[in-house]
Amino acid sequence: MPEVLKIHKLDNVAVALKPLSAGQKVTVDGEEITLSQEIPAGHKFALEELAAESTIIKYGYSIGKAAAPIRKGEWVHNHNIKTALGEILQYEYHPEHTQSLSLKQSEECHKFQGYRREKGLAGIRNEIWIIPTVGCVNDVAKQIERLGKEYLTDNRYLSDKIDALVAYTHPYGCSQLGDDQSNTQKILSGLINHPNAAGVLVLGLGCENNSIEEMKKQIGTYSQDRVKFLVCQEYEDEIEQGLAYIRELIDYASGFQREAIDASELIIGLKCGGSDGFSGITANPTVGAFSDLLVAEGGTTILTEVPEMFGAEIILMDRCANEELFHKTVSLINDFKQYFIDHKQPIYENPSPGNKKGGISTLEDKSLGCTQKSGDAIISGVLKYGEPVKSKGLMLLSAPGNDLVASTALAASGAHIVLFTTGRGTPFGSPVPTIKIASNSTLAKTKKNWIDFDAGRLLEGMTLQQLSEELFQLVLETASGKKVKSEENGYRDIAIFKQGITL
Length: 503
Known about the structure:
Number of strands: 23
Largest sheet: 7 strands, parallel
Strand order of the largest sheet: 19-20-18-17-21-22-23
């Protein structure tokens, strides 16, 4: 593995691929540079003399300004670099950029073994989900989950055909107003309608704002065999009634069989968290190349975490399929910035302490690496928070950067799987299989109980094409039933975006 990497020909910083010592000599573009300080792995150093206020270039774009003069060979990090981003910005539509892009189409036609649901949707898991309408019944949901799992070892219920029985608890559904209540309803109805759930028990209390009757309005048409509703206040023993519904749902779900389905029906969420200086070099480009492969076959990918588009948004805007999508993307960005302003918080609080320790210095630095998960495809749609996918191609989804909130939003919009890149490591699991992709091989080796895929091999001789094709195969295997680490560990949670007051 090389010691250093200059990512783009225009860059005036390079990245250390391993820890480098003060006084060590490295060669970049044929020029020998003596390092004046220790450079941790994943961190940057200057390739030329940089005056204060000079633009720092990485990935071929600005990642900020020099906060002080920086000498050639000096460590470049948050002690001597600052963001150059503004707040609400005006953007110009450049149709010539999109016209120069071609919508790649593949002659490949991969398949996976999935489940065909009644509405024609494809699922990749045959699970039973318990969805509370309100946090007051969380413990009831967990009790029904615990007792209901006993049926999964009882042959009378054909339970060997059920992949999992899970209660997705949350603290909301009452004492909420406006957008908060709407967000709760959108996310819960998205999960209720998700094709990975063969059967769903919707569990209400009976006096909450987000009542079952209100949820039915959000869910739309549904099969009474697939979705059962239980209002706890209406039964003497809600646990007994809940278990009766679980037995009915197991019986119904056991009738589904896996069958061959085109990969073009897959919807894959793209997310990163606990990023480091390698994320934008290895894991995110690998996911981006995968995204291009799937989109070329007619499939769908969804990029989210809007605050981590700040600083790279123009690159995305220039890939919008038409002017309408361009304006939707502008609103996506500026509306989220306004959210920070309205709450009197700095727009550019990112990166996190863990990001900084891993080598990411500014939000521009983080965003330019983050958005590489979108590959090079044309952007075909822009989704509001909680809005389901209704078309094919690469989508942008409004959601914050928080790992679990964003991953839940991806699932609620229809993602069958979430590809989650990380340089620091994280154990969590979302409502759908969450494939953890390490940006460096050290993490992949030390956290084998968390990590499913090692993208660090890109620096060890493997090509981007090889890794993206291998990741494609892992996605197909996962869609066909292979459990990922978070599933094996039993890690599954949801989180819902909260913006307003609580009564």
